[in-house]
Each structure stands twice: as C-alpha cells, then as structure tokens.
C-alpha cells in the first residue's frame, strides 16, 4: 500500500500556518487516494534521537568501515530505526515554517540523524555523493510571517527552500513540489494568500 508521511516541523499546533495548509493537503490527498495510508510525524514529539559526539563518531566509523564500540552500536540502532521510519514511506509531505531565514532546528536535527552513509547516501571518491532515496516524491509546504519575494533584504532572506530542497535532491528525491504561504509583498498581510495556498495544496494533493 502506498504511504504518505507528513513530517511537521512547527511546534505551534492549531496556530501554525504551515500545518493549516498541510492539513488541507492531507484531506484532499485522502479523498483522491482512499487506498493509500497517511501517517503523521510531529518532529517535536520527542522521538528524534540526539546526534551528539557518540553518534558522530559512529557515523565516521561506518563511513570508514570500522567496527563500532558498544555505545556507538546503541546510538546507531536509534539512528537506523529513525531512518527506517522515514524510508518506509513512498511520498513525503513536509510542513515547514521559516525560522531566522531558514528551517526550525528540529528539522535540521532530523536531517542530521537520517543522513547517513548507506542509508540516505553513498559516496565514491571519484564520482562523489549519490542519493539513495530513489523513486520517492516530496511536497513541501513553506510558510513565513515576514519574508516574501520582492520585499527586500530588510524583511529577510530565503535559506529555507534552498536548504531543504537541496537536501532532498542530494538525497535522491528528484520529484519535489512546493506550496508557499508568504505575506503580501506590499502590505505584509499573510491572510490574503491563505486561500490561494490552500487551493494549491488541494490541487497538488489531487495530482500527486
């Protein structure tokens, strides 16, 4: 059964603009694909393991083909279990608010945990990296409260889309669609674009 995994990077619950648009997407997706499974992963729910010194040493040991010590094996089990939960889905929906021109740190934590050799990527000294998440599709819902294209540098910069979409394509996910809720460039009003973003979410969901 095809599976859509929604990864939510906002901690704001019902007050989250990105989650609001994502929920419209999910409702339309369920209607268009009643035989598909839809699962939700709140990245703030405490299930993400830390990626600290032990995990970093384990990663480099795996990269070098070395044996792991007992502490490294224990943390590596958590890393691989996190990746397995992610990899089990065929399609991804990310809902991502803009934080300080980029993405919330919990999403960066998720990316750092799953981006491991033999899982998300392979590496060859001659040809470089090769993403292993082949044949998957992703939709990303972006939101921002201040930044919008055309507002000028005083209103922020967009490292949100370049970072996440760069990572997805590096990981092998070539099919990426985006939905953005930005404030109006002239007025700064976010509400004005909400209906447009909701309609876009429903259209993308129906055609995915």
UniProtKB/TrEMBL annotation:
Co-factor binding details: Binds 1 FMN per subunit.
UniProt xrefs under Gene3D superfamilies: 3.40.50.360
Gene Ontology MF: a single term: electron transfer activity
UniProt keyword annotations, A-Z: Flavoprotein, FMN, NAD, Oxidoreductase
EC main group: oxidoreductase
Catalytic activity: 2 a quinone + NADH + H(+) = 2 a 1,4-benzosemiquinone + NAD(+); N,N-dimethyl-1,4-phenylenediamine + anthranilate + 2 NAD(+) = 2-(4-dimethylaminophenyl)diazenylbenzoate + 2 NADH + 2 H(+)
Binding site for FMN: 10, 16-18
Record-annotated Flavodoxin-like fold domain positions: 3-199
Matching InterPro entries: Flavodoxin_fold, Flavoprotein-like_sf, FMN-dep_NADH:Q_OxRdtase_AzoR1, NADH:quinone_OxRdtase_FMN_depd
Pfam family name, one: Flavodoxin_2
EC number: 1.6.5.-, 1.7.1.17
Cofactor: FMN
PANTHER family assigned to the protein according to its UniProt record, in alphabetical order: FMN-DEPENDENT NADH-AZOREDUCTASE 1 (PTHR43741), FMN-DEPENDENT NADH:QUINONE OXIDOREDUCTASE (PTHR43741:SF4)
Subunit structure: Homodimer.
Primary role: Also exhibits azoreductase activity. Catalyzes the reductive cleavage of the azo bond in aromatic azo compounds to the corresponding amines.
Protein family according to the UniProt entry: Belongs to the azoreductase type 1 family.
Name of the protein: FMN dependent NADH:quinone oxidoreductase
């Amino acid at each position: 059964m095809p599976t859509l995994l929604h990864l939510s990077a906002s901690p704001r619950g019902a007050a989250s603009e990105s989650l609001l648009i994502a929920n419209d997407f999910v409702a339309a997706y369920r209607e268009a694909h009643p035989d598909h499974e839809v699962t939700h992963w709140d990245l703030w729910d405490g299930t993400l393991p830390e990626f600290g010194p032990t995990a970093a040493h384990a990663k480099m040991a795996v990269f070098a083909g070395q044996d792991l010590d007992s502490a490294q094996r224990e943390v590596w089990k958590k890393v691989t279990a996190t990746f397995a939960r992610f990899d089990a889905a065929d399609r991804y929906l990310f809902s991502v608010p803009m934080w300080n021109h980029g993405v919330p740190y919990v999403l960066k934590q998720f990316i750092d945990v799953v981006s491991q050799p033999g899982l998300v990527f392979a590496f060859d000294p001659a040809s470089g990296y090769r993403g292993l998440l082949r044949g998957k599709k992703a939709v990303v819902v972006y939101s921002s409260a201040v930044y919008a294209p055309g507002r000028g540098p005083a209103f922020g910069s967009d490292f949100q889309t370049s970072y996440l979409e760069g990572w997805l394509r590096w990981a092998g996910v070539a099919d990426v669609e985006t939905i953005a809720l930005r404030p109006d460039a002239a007025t700064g009003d976010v509400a004005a674009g909400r209906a447009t973003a909701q309609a876009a979410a429903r259209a993308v969901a129906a055609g995915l």
